[in-house]
Amino acid sequence: MDNVLPSLVVYVVDDDKSVRDSLKFMLEEYDFTITTFEDGQQFLNAIDLAMPGCVILDCRMPNLRGQQVHQLLNEAKSPLAVIYLTGHGNVPMAVDALQSGAVNFFQKPVKGSELALAINKGLNQSTVNINTMKINDAYASLTKREKDILRLIIAGKRNLRIADELCIAMRTVEVHRATLLKKFSAKTVAELAYIYGQCNQI
Amino acid sequence: MIIRRWFRCYFYAIFLGMALMALPISAQSISEKPISEKPNVNIGVLATRGHLYLEQRWQPTVDWLNQQISDVNFVLHPLDLNTMADAVSQQTLDFVLTNPGQSVTLGRQYTLSWIATLTNKTPENTHSGIGSALVVRASSAYQTLEDVVGLSMAAVSEKAFGGYLTLRYEIAQQGINPNDFFADVHYLGFPIDANLYQLRDNNVEAAIVPVCLLENMSKEGLIDKQNFRVLNLKDNSNFACQVSTPLYPNWSLAKTERGSDRLAKQISRVLLSMPNDNPAIIAAGASGWTSSVNLLSIDKVYQALDILPLQQSWWKQALRLFRSHQEWAWVIFIFFIIINAYHFWLEYCFSKNKQELEKTQYRLKQKSEMLEHSQRVAIVGELGSSLAHEINQPLAAIRNYSEGGLLRLAKKLPYQDIVPVFEKIQSEVDRADAIINRLRTLITKRTVEKQLLDIEQLLDDTIELLHFRLQKLEVGIFREIKGKPANVEVDIVGLQQVIINVINNAMEACLTHFERHPDIGYHPEIIIRTNYRQDKFILEVVDNGTGLEHDNPVDAFVSTKKDGLGLGLAICRDVIEMHKGEFMLQSIKPNGCIVKISLPILVTEITGNRYG
To answer: What is the DSSP string of B314-330?
Structure first.
């Protein structure tokens, strides 16, 4: 099967070398870019948490347990997608993991195809995550006037009408509209509306 | 009297003759032979008032005997009541001289022939000198014995012959119950004078005193005879003292079984012919000796007094006691009731506690069964968990490598690229193998201590351990023993594990069979056979359960049980092989299974102690 986003990195964190190496070997055959780490702390230190990607975590590890790594990632608002792969999983652990936003929870040994599917899903989610984050950041950077104008634009009102409602000059509305398109990296008002729909901070 | 006088004359004549004959002989023998060569004749005498008094009283008599009978040497032995009885029983004495009371008691126990009785000095020559006087104050209204029944009286001692027993006998003879008569007697002990003083001072209503005490004390000026009266006065013309009872004989001399008859005759002659003024007679405080005739009367007294209270219906006595001590009787009765009530209460508590104990014991068994089970589960769980973890890692790696390898093959990559995959897989397999080996050695490396063991005892203990389950599943368990039980050298823990495992399997097989064929007539049974042969010991566990369902049930991880690990029989086999024995399973017809365990035996037969 083809990878949607082959450029994104997949991290494998497992204290068992043979598992690490064999996973890397197999997943590379699925054309993923694999980087491996011995434990959670090493992994957190080494990577840029703001970059999208997917991490495969073992639960029982020295230094930081898989769940702790996941929690730190969430606290850092990392877009990384998390997949658990553990030797001793149980239902409560799986439920906790999924509630914390994990993509999937596997028990060793895992079928390569299923794991690859999950990784693809995770990478997709990660790119979505990073987009959402960008949009949210953009929204957060808007002034009050810009937010008002954005709302009216999304409501489908023309510049003249907006100027009327907000009692400002038509020219001012035009300038704000251009700024909004730029801030949300949209080319048309339709695209702006789509991006606005993805924003979850309203 | 004429006869007596004639007798006396006759005796005197014999005595004189003998004395005349004996004198020269004795003189001759003394001069020719030392005294010590003459045989000793032992005379035991009751020492009532110490040895010195005794010698003063009786030595002159013994000297007289020695003088008169010269061919033997009489020796005086002072003895008390007990030592005299001992001496008579051990036959160390030839003759005994004692008071009438002991004469009779000794005479009853041993063969004694009475030779002579002492006669009284005062007031007239009579051999009877002992009896009682029941004295009351002259001013009192009491006239007969009936008048004083149950009144307060004074006496010396309840064992005093003259002072008490003779009167008691007299009372009984008159048809009065002695226990009623002597209902309130104060025993004052010595000196006997006190009895009359107590009477004089109105402290008692009557006094029982030895005969002549009243007269003697009056003579000595201690009391005035006129102030007292003696009841039941006996007409005794020969006797100067007032007496309420018949008179009984004085001290007597008797021959024991040891003493010779010839000597007894001689002594009798010597004593009876002793003149009144002889110093020996005076020293003895008597008037002479007479032939022993009426000791029977004393014996009668004793017999009557001994037997009377026993024959006297005991319930009458009890009733009398009850009447006189009613308050105590009630106390005892109430005490008895309380004790009984307490006893029943205890019994009740005991039975209640016993029931509770049995219940608790049952619960305890149940709990221990559960504990045993949970321990087993815990061990299996722990083993399973670590097994899963240890083996999972290399398995995961192998899976990853093989999938990666397959992907490479699918991409039609050259085989050189695929070879490393197999190498990796192989190394992971090695790792898994190493883990399993390590686990196996971990399991079998338990330190094993073999010791000589009584297998029958081990089986008893093990069945006891499983008793609760056996009972619950209603499985009958039977034992058969062949050969002579001997100790076998085994690892006790391991073998017990094997037995428990095998019996558990048998029980479960029976249960399964019953579930599949729920016939009414099915009785699950387990037979345990032990066979002690010359060189080996064979243990067979036979059940009538469902039989074997697997070709190789002994292999590890083979199980028909829903949650079984399939290790039980494998471990059993390992344990038995460690003992250099054999472990075999076989289905039997029509249904069931036989487990056969054989162990090599060391010849040490059990002798006596099964636990040895």
So the answer is: HHHHHHHHHHHTHHHHH
